[in-house]
Amino acid sequence: MFRLANSIKQRTITALLLLAIAIPFSPPAAAQAQALLPRAAAPKASPAPAKPKLVVLLVVDQMRGDYVDKFLGQWTGGLRRLVEEGAWFRDAAFPYAATETCVGHATISTGAFPATHGMVANAWWDRKDQKMVTCTADPDPSVKNTGYAGATPKGADTAWRMAVPSFAEELKFQTSGATRIVTFSLKARAALTMAGHKADAATWFDGGAWVTSSPYGTLPFIEEQAKSHPAKADFGKTWSLSLPESAYWYGEKALGAVPPDGWDLTFPHPLRGKTGVGEPDGAFYEQWASSPYADTALTELAEKAVDALNLGKAAGTDFLAVSYSSVDYVGHEFGPRSREIQDILIRLDKDLGNLFAHLDKKVGRGNYVVALSADHGVVPIPEDMQKTGADAGVLHLPELQERIEKAVEPFNYAKPAVARISGSDIYFAPGVYDKLQQDRAALQAVLDAALAQPGVAAIYRAEELRDRPATPQSSNQSPAHRAFANSYFPGRSGDLFILPKPYWLLDGTPIGKQRSYGTGHGVPYNYDQHVPVLLMGFGIQPGQYFQPITPADIAPTFAALCGITLSSRDGHPLAEALKKPAEPRAPAQTP
Ligand SMILES: [Zn+2]
Fold it and tell me: Quick check: pTM over 0.85?
């Protein structure tokens, strides 16, 4: 359709141009042409395409794609506006296995898959140092986390492990350098991956304080906001249902839910810490992070950034990103089938409505482009899913580890043979996997033992994943196999990979301990992979789009609007949602 329309348009333009060029050389014909042509057809120097003044990236941590379909009718604010005024991609999914926070944010930020950007998990086993490292832990001794309002955070976090630049970094680097980059989240792995390796500000929340780290800038307006203690100021507030009880889809108590300390399974949820009296404690900050109040605090920070820096008013295209973390905490605690999830989205919809109204006022409607997506979805709480009679359960990783140790016992391997199982990745002790690859009987014993663990559907080996398929269509691999290949980054990924059965939760709780959360994510099934992708504003053609896309397409779409090039071709511009240049008016008919 578009191609046909475009080629007709192309021919019309060419014909008009040819006519126009011919004019100076044949004056009698010129008069005739003048009568035939409307004024608009006169040749003009074409200016460079306009650029958005501000790019806004919003990530809602753990927001499943189907939440939009389910709850849209109850939204009246920003989420509704994104659907009504924007482009809604209804079949967007991460095409890889490691559906975790750091991975999803890095994918959205860079337009690349984890096999390219290298952020393969929130944390992985460092083979050299024989310890777990988080995706943002920076070993450079000159790097230090720094706190606003006098806070003294621990650690050193940056995006140094991200193997390609973020869209925001590329934008600043490739244009005049006037781009300001500002990101906010409750989580370091979200704020840092969205920003990139350096930024004007990349701010997150740690132990009751707003923090950043030394390679990133600090800004006076954040200091001012931090001094007003937006979290502490919410101490004593209560999270109650926003709508009448009859408006909620699910029962009062989510089956298998594990609420934060000091909270019951039922509304209302008081933000009063563990004991309900006294000063804000660790439990209070956990409650706050699991409440709509944290989303509101992030929204206020974003609005203050727009005001303080005059974002969207300077020479370059500015970049503002917010990752809303609370839906993720609530989802882990109460599961996707909970009143808490439904209600926190109603509240987030209002916050986003306020944010867009602020951007309209300060930057101008149509001058900014916004994308909203999520870093991953979530699986229903296994105990809840079992109610349906479906095959669902908990895949207990420490048990799986014991089975593997037992399996290699007869083959004379040093103990322990397994260094770590982290999520779906099994890491062997140094030298063990090399030996196993030469030792077919022992490897088969390991695979048989792993496959015998309840909930295991398949085990993939690193050597099966190393060569990514050239195109998604060219491979005869299963979708799960391809998904693991898209996640595989040599050196960081495991030696073996566990594919659970659908609706089986990968659980690392030590043997003999109670699971301290309701549910999780991190596997290549649609409930973890399918997320919303919504675009709105500058250059965006509103509508509903059903073709399958990935959130890695967001950064290339921004890049297309800003006229820059990203290094990776994993993602592609969402051309169908980009506004086409206005059609030239048909030549007026001679009377
Ligand atoms: Zn997440």
Answer: yes
